[in-house]
Design brief:
The complex is a heterodimer. Chain A is α/β, with parallel strands linked by helices. Chain A is built from 21 helices and 18 strands. Chain A is globular, with a radius of gyration of 25 Å. The longest helix of chain B has 19 residues. Chain B is built from 7 helices and 6 strands. Classes of the chains: A alpha/beta, B alpha/beta. Chains A and B meet through strand 1, strand 7, helix 12 and helix 15 of A and helix 1, strand 2, helix 2, strand 5 and helix 3 of B.
């Protein structure tokens, strides 16, 4: 057995490669990005020709993965938690069609919102779709679970979810890795996946019939276990990485049921309740299990958790808030520092987004009631000082459609700022709505030729933006390209002013490479030259 | 034996390279290790930190508990103070003394230095100046690692040197030598 130091994300990627993966489908999103990147850069994956190119968004990723499963092969689709919202239609219905080759839906949740706009818990989605969930507590389990999850998926003929959180995704530990297993051959599904009502009703009953098998699998799972070391006053249900914090606080002296595979094993929960005076549910994310346990045990039984305030209602678990809930709070020798200021992230020096906001602020200062609707990417930082330019940032693509809705209501100027990758992810359909309504909006597609915020992945529409906008019906003379540099400020502001004054849909594309990828490309070029010399 | 280390600084200063080197050395030494990193948005000029846990026994939590860090290794003086609540009673701060000012409300520098100096165990040094004197401004993080080396304890100086050689190997011998030189300079400085 070889030992490798791997991020949780990397352990999942390698686990998938070793479990006979044929394709990973994903759109970059923190904290899930490194899974696909690892597969893209892995020698074995390249030799086998495992599909790993980035997708345009999570919905296209989910559907392509389902297609690969239909053809009989093992597929992995990865996303951050909010990506589940984007692919929800395909995801929920993949449980109705069922799968052929194993299909894992990897959802990386971000409690505490380190890099996200909410802390929704993907386990709700799995429950909604009625499929099993694996939730690793450490990097080794993350690696091991991928193979087991594919097997379960193929045994049940259903997709399974692998749910992780930021602290596992982005934490390294040594992982024992095994030999690689071969991929499935091509073997397209024989039965119909046509979800016409008559067929869908039948398939839905089939899904319901599989629920007992899913529960049995969780009950028998090697990843769920019972530990008895406590005095019977408090039983602990520890889900995923919460198990680590419980062990950190109490060691072996607690009665614990560790949950790393769902559906929640009801018998283990009832037994824990019988053997203890009360139960504490420790889970990272939202109180998914706590609510279920309340239903299982009824009103008379004492349940502690996030809903009761024993653990914080929001934010990620830490060894500290868990230890405190378990009655052993930390001793802190030092006071907080006095000479300390917050240091929020900011746009890089020399970043083209900076010039875009400088120009927008200059031009719009002449108007009374303007709003700039923002979107998701590095350029969301334009909301912070020194620019303070944005009125909103909600979800991928919302800048264009919100600007349109506000313009419909009479707002002028109504401006959208969206990045190149976000535009192809979810902005194009909104642009079509705006064109069809001849909405009086100005759209800035700030094109840095990459998916910047997640570290510079390829952007699906590079070199296609003018063609896409014109193809969707924006008048060619109102698709304007500028180079965002301080020296071009007079030209940029003139063009912005002209297009704001134009009554209809106009698109301005400031285009200059991201500073991070530029520096990387320069380094690579230099290294290549050195190698030649 | 166990060591809980908080590595911190400002996004882009190279704290993850330090983490990678300690990680390499710990793996080779057969230690248990967990290292939680920060990726994503905060890397853009914001405060960044990494929790590094090394132990001869299995480690449960990826995160260090409040009041339990043995060592804070910081690329920036104010950032070293951000994690004071994590420092144990006998813990040490090893930090660059050179402020990185990219915010308008950076604290008064003399007051900041006074607060830092009032801590029971502090090693601080202008690592950027040292790296520049050595004509390798990019190796400031290796100077810092050298300064911290005597306090890491659970790994020897030689184990860390070997790890530097492994991590920088693909960049060529000259880069390895430069980083080892910066590391040695840091060790020397921490003894002064």
């Amino acid at each position: 057995m070889e030992k490798r130091l791997l991020l949780g994300d990397e352990a999942i990627a390698l686990g998938a490669i070793h479990a006979g993966l044929s394709g990973v489908y994903a759109y970059p999103g923190t904290p899930s990005t490194e899974i696909t990147e690892f597969i893209q850069n892995n020698v074995e994956a390249r030799q086998r020709g495992i599909h790993s190119r980035w997708c345009t968004n999570e919905k296209t990723a989910m559907e392509a993965a389902l297609g690969m499963s239909y053809a009989g092969k093992r597929a992995l689709v990865c996303m951050k938690h909010v990506g589940m919202n984007v692919c929800a239609d395909a995801f929920v219905n993949s449980a109705i069609t069922g799968v052929n080759g194993g299909l894992i839906v990897l959802a990386a949740d971000d409690p505490s919102m380190h890099s996200s706009q909410n802390e929704q818990d993907s386990r709700f989605y799995a429950k909604f779709a009625m499929i099993p969930v694996f939730e690793p507590s450490n990097q080794q389990e993350a690696y091991d679970m991928v193979g087991r999850a594919f097997e379960l998926s193929e045994a049940l003929k259903e997709p399974v979810m692998l749910r992780i959180v930021t602290r596992l995704a982005h934490s390294r530990a040594a992982v024992e890795v095994g030999p690689a297993k071969g991929e499935n051959g091509l073997c397209p599904a024989k039965e119909s996946w046509v979800l016409l009502p008559g067929i869908a009703r039948k398939k839905y009953v089939e899904l319901l019939d599989k629920q007992q098998a899913m529960a049995d699998a969780a009950t028998a799972s090697e990843f769920n276990k019972v530990e008895r070391g406590g005095d019977g006053r408090l039983g602990i249900l520890a889900c995923g990485i919460a198990y680590n914090y419980v062990k950190e606080a109490l060691g072996d002296s607690a009665n614990v049921v560790k949950i790393s595979q769902y559906p929640l094993p009801a018998d283990a929960v009832r037994k824990l309740a019988q053997e203890n005076d009360a139960i504490m549910v420790v889970e990272d994310g939202q109180p998914v299990v706590e609510e279920q346990v309340a239903g299982l045990l009824g009103a008379g039984y004492a349940i502690k958790g996030r809903l009761t305030g024993d653990l914080p209602r929001t934010g990620e678990l830490t060894p500290d808030n868990v230890a405190k809930a378990l009655g052993s709070p930390a001793e802190i020798p030092f006071e907080p520092a006095r000479n300390l200021a917050a240091r929020p992230p900011q746009l890089c020096q020399g970043c083209g987004h900076r010039d875009v906001y400088t120009a927008l602020n200059l031009v719009l200062a002449e108007y009374k009631d303007y709003r700039i609707f923002g979107d998701i990417g590095c350029y969301t930082l334009g909301a912070l000082p020194p620019f303070k330019a944005l009125a909103s940032c909600v979800d991928m693509g919302a800048s264009i459609t919100m600007a349109k809705g506000a313009a419909d209501a009479g707002l002028f100027p109504s401006v959208a700022v969206i990045g190149d990758s976000t535009f192809t992810h979810s902005g194009m359909t909104g642009l079509l709505d705006a064109v069809n309504d001849n909405a009086n909006i100005t759209i800035v597609i700030s094109d840095n030729l990459t998916t910047g915020m997640t570290g510079g992945q390829d952007s699906a529409g590079t070199n296609k933006y003018e063609a896409i906008c014109i193809g969707l019906g924006v008048k060619p003379e109102h698709v304007r390209v500028v180079v965002p540099l301080p020296k071009n400020m007079p030209e940029i502001t003139r063009i912005l002013k002209e297009e704001i004054e134009y009554n209809g849909v106009s698109v301005i594309i400031p285009r200059r490479e991201c500073m991070q990828t530029l520096q990387r490309h320069l380094r690579e070029k230099k290294a290549a030259q050195n190698n030649k010399a | 034996m166990k060591k809980d280390i908080i590595l911190c600084g400002v996004g882009g200063q190279g704290i993850l390279s330090i983490a990678t080197i300690i990680g390499e050395a710990a793996t080779k030494a057969g230690l248990y290790l967990k290292q939680a990193e920060v990726h994503g948005m905060s890397q853009r000029g914001g405060d960044v930190q990494s929790n590094l846990r090394l132990s001869t026994e299995p480690i449960h939590s990826d995160l260090i508990s409040l009041g339990k860090a043995d060592l804070i290794i910081s690329m920036e003086p104010m950032e070293s103070l951000r994690y004071l609540l994590y420092l144990s009673k006998t813990g040490t701060i090893v930090t660059s003394s050179k402020p990185f000012v990219n915010i308008p409300n950076y604290p008064d520098e003399p007051a900041l230095m006074a607060e830092l100096e009032a801590m029971p165990s502090v090693v601080k040094l202008n690592i950027e100046d040292i790296a520049r004197e050595l004509m390798m401004p990019k190796a400031a993080n290796m100077v810092l690692l050298g300064m911290a080396a005597p306090y890491i304890g659970i790994l020897s100086v030689e184990q860390l040197r070997d790890a530097i050689a492994v991590i920088f190997a693909r960049k060529g011998e000259a880069v390895v030598e430069a980083n080892l030189k910066a590391f040695d300079k840091g060790i020397e400085a921490s003894h002064q």
